[in-house]
Write a structure and sequence with these properties.
12 helices
Amino acid sequence: MKITNTVAGLLASLIAVVSANAQSTDELIAQAIQPLPEDLRAGAAVFDYDEDGQRVMLRGGSNHVECKPRDENGFTMCFPKVTAGRRDFSAKLAAGGLEGEELQAAVAAAESEGTIEPSPFGSMMYRLYEKDDRIQLLWVILLPNATSEELGLSVESQRDNALAGMGRPWMMREGTPSAHLMIPINGTELSNKGGAKMAMDTKGMQDMVAHATLPLPEDLRDGAAVVTYENGMRKTLREGSNMIVCQTRDDESGFTRCGHKDNLASMDLQAKLTAEGKSNEEVQAAIAAAEAAGEVAPRKFGQVGYRLYEEDDRLKLLWVMRLPNATSVGLGMPTGSQRDNALAGKGMPWMMREGSDSAHLMIPINGTELSNMR
C-alpha cells in the first residue's frame, strides 16, 4: 500500500511526540529518585497526581519507597509506601480546594475516624531542594506527639548551620501530631556546600566534663550530667539539669558516649559486668535479661544516643536512634551500609539489625569539626 507524504509526515510527528514524552518521563523518574540513597533508587516507584488528585504512576517499584517529582515549590519528595493511602486522600482534598490548616484538620479527622491509617512512628521521608537558600538534602523522621525530653533530642534549630554544610539533626513541633526530626545531610554532591575546614583537636583536652559532652549538640551540653566508671562503679563528675547523661571516654574502646538518663541503670550494669571480665555478648545478654525482668528500663523507641570517636578508622561523630523490632519496610528506611561514605565525610543514615530488639538507625554527622573529613 502506498503511503502519501501527508500520512507519512503525520506518522513521523506522532513518533517524535511519543519519543519526546518517553524521554520526559525518564527524566522525571531520574529526577524524582535523587533524594534517596543509591541502594533504594532502582527499586523506588515514581508517581504524581493529576488535577483531580488522582494518582498517576510513572514507574512501578520493587521496594518499600516511592517518590514524587519536583513540585511547584521546588521540592522533590520520597516516602514509605505504607503511607500512600494517607497522601492519596490528602491529594484529593487538595484538588477539591482545601489547603493549609483546613486541609490538615480534615486529614486529622479522617485519621481519627479510621478512614486513613496514621503514619507509623519513626517513618522516614526524603526531600531534595536544588537552591542554596534552603536545606538542600533533608531527611525527616516522623515522631508524632513525642517530646525532646522523652527522646533526648535537641530542639534548637540547625538551619543556619545546615545552610553552611555543617548542620546537626534537631526536633521540630515537639509534643504535637506533626512532631518530627530534621536530619540535614551534609557533605554529598546534593548537599549545601561548606562544612568545617579543619578538625577540632580534642585528644589533648584536660577538662573531662567538657570533653565528655562533645558528642552532643551545643544546646544540650551545659545541662548534661557527666559520669565516669572506676572498677565498674559509677562516679558522678557533674550533676545534670536536662535529660542527658554523658560518660567520659572509655580508654579501651576510644568511645565517648551520651544518652538518655533513663538508661543510667543499664549503663551501670554494663560497666559492672565489663569490669568483671564478661564478653560483650555476655554483657548484652545480661542487659536484655534485666530489661525483660524489669530491673532496668528498656530503651525507648526513638531515643537517640550520641557517640564520639577520635581516630579516622571509624565514624567519628555518630548519633544512633533506637528502633527496637522495626523493619525497613515498615518505616521506609534504607539498610545499605554507609560506613565507607561516612569515613569519607559524606555518609547518609541507614538502619542496622532490622526486625531485632537491637534495631537502630545509624546517623553519621558530616561536615562538623568533630566529623570525618572529606
